[in-house]
Protein: Imidazole glycerol phosphate synthase subunit HisF
Organism: Seinonella peptonophila
Amino acid sequence: MTTKRIIPCLDVKDGRVVKGVSFVNLRDAGDPIELAALYDQQRADELVFLDISASHEGRKTMVEIVRRAAAELTIPFTVGGGISTVEDMLRILHAGADKVSLNTASLLNPELITAGAVRFGNQCIVVAIDAKYDEEREDWFVYTHGGRQRVEKTAVEWAKEAVHRGAGEILLTSMDQDGQKNGFDIRLNQQVTEAVSVPVIASGGAGDEQHFVDVFAQTSVSAALAASIFHYQEVSIASVKESLREKGFEMR
């Protein structure tokens, strides 16, 4: 059995961690370096930092946060948001990140995935997919620009293309479930994991320990990501891992 990973996510805006519901109504969740150090102590398997500040100033702030986080952390971490060139990737990796996450820029310019994979290796390139269900067409479609613009590609189509172009991992977020705390989107995660050969991180919907058990038991995802339940100490990483071990899952 593949070892499963539990990954807290830090959405960073103007130097602070924030969290919303279905990508809106953001509220403050703390200092990113303090939270990162806490999750390191609590034995998170990895961390994800997402810069949701769109401005150039936001990106400069994020590079400094990455540098400070790298000095504190003993676990791998991925950084995404506003990365649109190979030079942006280089800046983030040089600051200390282990992987970069590409979202909107990779949809606008898919060659960016290949360029990054060639320069830094597939293992450094994560493609983040924000997907929302269309009831009329009975499928999940991809959204860009922080969930604001729909692309006429399904989540499965784009995941397959991203992997073909060099993505070493997929970070799959259900926009419908994001912040709802009523469980991961099992069907979405099933379809994408069946379509690609690289690890998939499930994101969106975690509310308790059982939700992590469900997504690992019912899909082939390699990792599960959560934010608010960890930030506001509603659920601990230790309790999630213990629940999973009790069900027979091998944890890091």
User: Anything to note?
Assistant: The longest strand covers residues 125-134. DSSP finds ten helices and twelve strands in the chain.
